[in-house]
Amino acid sequence: MKQNLSSAAPKLRDAVAWQVVTVETTARTQIKDITREIAALIKQAGMENGVCQLYVPHTTAGIIINESDDPDVGRDIGDVLDRLVPRDAHYKHYEGNADSHVKAALVGSSALVPIEAGRLGLGRWQGIFFCEFDGPRHRQVKVRIARD
Ligand code: ZN
User: Fold this and answer.
1) Residue 95 falls within a domain, yes or no?
2) Averaged pLDDT, 36-58
3) For residue range 107-123, what is the model confidence (pLDDT) as tens digits?
4) Average pLDDT estimate for 6-35
5) In a domain, 2, yes or no
6) Where in the sequence is the domain holding 74, given as residue range(s)?
7) What's the gap in Å between 114 CA and the centre of ligand 1?
8) Rounded to the nearest whole angstrom, what is the distance from the C-alpha of residue 146 to the centroid of ligand 1?
């Protein structure tokens, strides 16, 4: 994606608008690695140094940064959250997905990653994970790439 701002624009306005990345989930609980999709946006933007902000606009999904080298880490995180917050525990919420809301609240709805030398400034073992707690669903992550 090309930036609409001219190179003469003030630095503070030197940002790309929020973009939407779609995420398809295939299970009720799924911790899905989306690092590659986000890295592609950084590359497209041609941003050398800046910050990547990520926001999940859902009440039963969230986002985390954790180990991506071993895919079992994401599975373990999902399994532990399912054990910690059982599906049926006499919740008051009428929709039958109270556990999904609680898990989403535990992991949070946003993340921030530095952009360094045109790449995501993640640690050696880190990846960005979309966290589905009421899937399968068609989901979104809002992404904003801003220059330093
Ligand atoms: Zn609900």
Assistant:
1) yes
2) 94
3) 999 999 999 999 999 99
4) 80
5) no
6) 23-147
7) 33
8) 33
Residue 1 pLDDT > 70: no
What is the distance between the terminal CA atoms of the chain, rounded to a whole angstrom?
Answer: 18
> Ligand 1 mean position to 19 CA, how many Å?
26
Distances from the Cα of 136 to the Cα of 15, 60, 114, 132, angstroms: 33, 11, 30, 8
On whether residue 50 sits in a domain, the answer given is: yes
Domain count, the chain: 1
Quote the ligand 1 centre to 97 CA distance (angstroms): 5
CA distance 143 to 38: 8
Tell me the pTM. 0.89
Domain assignment present for 121: yes
Q: State how far the Cα of 35 lies from the Cα of 33, in Å rounded to an integer.
A: 6
CA 94–ligand 1 middle distance (angstroms): 7
Q: How far is the CA of 129 from the centre of ligand 1 (A)?
A: 22
Radius of gyration, CA atoms only, the chain:
17
CATH number of the domain within which 58 lies: 2.60.120.460
Instruction: Give the Å distance between the CA of 16 and the centre of ligand 1.
Output: 33
Tell me, in angstroms, the distance from the centre of ligand 1 to residue 93's CA: 7
98 CA to middle of ligand 1, Å? 6
